[in-house]
Amino acid sequence: MNSRPVVTDHWVARTFRYLYRIPWLLVHLFLGLPLVLLSMLPAWRDWGVGGLPLEQRAVQLWSGGLLRVFGLRVSRSGSPLPGGVLLVANHVSWIDIQMIHSQQMVGFVAKAEIARWPVVGWLAARGQTIFHHRGDTQSLGGVMDEMEQRLRQQRPVAVFPEGRTRSGDEVGPFHARIFTCAVQAQVPVQPVALVYGEHAQAQTQVAFAEGEGFLGNFLRLLGEPARSAQLHFLAPIAPGELAGRRQIAELARERIVQAMAA
Fold first, then answer.
1. Which of 129, 76, 74 is nearest to 105 (CA)?
2. FRET pair for 7, CA 20 to 30 Å: which of 40, 136, 195, 250?
3. pLDDT tens column, 84-104
4. How far is Cα 41 from Cα 54, in angstroms, rounded to an integer?
């Protein structure tokens, strides 16, 4: 007797959220995205706005706005390092990219399939993303070379060292090879913990469900209740601080897991 009203209320609340979020999303897409594209034109993309180039500020604002459309109340601890730095984060869902872009425009390493995703793929391609064809050794070699080149140019690069999204209930092992570019370029590695919900209680809700594709996850998250989301920019690992890439990978993962458990 008591369970039926709860279920009904759940769907009523979700329907209500769709009714106001979908129009909000459409305005954000059809008005906001053209403005972001305009900000990337060479004529003025380097104009300073609040201490940042115009295109970077536009991407930050647009990404932060998209997170608000999805009901995420974002907070941050720590700050991303300037210049050449390898940012490494746990990977939960497609929205992780927008979380980091809301704080810093950075070139991501992402699977090539993302380029075909609606909206996110469009913005990723224009946000200096390095696309990797998984399982292709030649592609990986090219990605590693591009990452090292950008780091040597003092441009930040971000990557998800788990290599794929997971169910949200654990942080998988970090692949050590991806840290080679930071070792060779002699730049710091900064771990970033992405936490959804209080004490990471919403990681599994944000993550892709079994058999769920991008569009399904996108639409489901659009109807989810408002919740907190935190980015923790953690203590960086300085060049030469550890003996090799495997130790760097293990320490970066350890710091992220500790931050999520706090």
1. 129
2. 195
3. 999 999 999 999 999 999 999
4. 10
